[in-house]
Specification:
Blueprint: H1 10-20, H2 24-33, H3 38-56, E1 63-70, E2 76-84, H4 87-90, H5 93-109, H6 121-134, H7 140-158, E3 164-165, E4 168-172, H8 173-184, E5 189-197
Antiparallel strand pairs: 1-2, 2-5, 3-4
Helix pairs in contact: 1-2, 1-3, 2-3, 3-8, 6-7
Amino acid sequence: MMSTTITISAQMVADLREKTGAGLLDCKKALTEASGNVEEAITILRKKGAASAAKKAERAAKEGIIESYIHVGGKVGVMIEVNCETDFVARNDEFKAFVKDLCLQIAAASPLYVSRDQVPEAELANERDIAAAQVQGKPPAAVQKIVEGKLEKHFSTFCLLDQPFVKVPDKTVKEILTEQIAKTGENIKVRRFIRYQLGS
């Protein structure tokens, strides 16, 4: 029985690159692996991007930019520091646009922390107690699941990286950050931010 070979055209590769921002060679490999199925190729590239980002996470990110944003009317202001590995990436327009988008995210969604590891243990314990009190009388296994679910909701509300990205709500900020790491080939870290709101 003969196997069918799918021809991957230059246009298919270009279209996938346009959708994902991945390199040409990576797009061609993903399309070949997915037998020309674009959705499957996108999944392959996303998995590869996540794996690549995890490998780069240990690399030092000492360059970057500090960006600020004042919302119309001057009632909300944001300042953020995002680090990368080289000045070359820090000066890149796409990187700058990404950091600006993070400022808009913080202004709109009011996170309190960059990531879940910054949430104080006392706050987590308090959230667990509140959630457990709300489901008294249910079986212990159900209580555990409900409490963990409420904690996840807490993270997606108050941790920047866990929030749905305002421009692409079906992705989290962390997923968008992972895509940026894959595109630049460098480790990128949101180091810190501060959000001011008039009167608060």
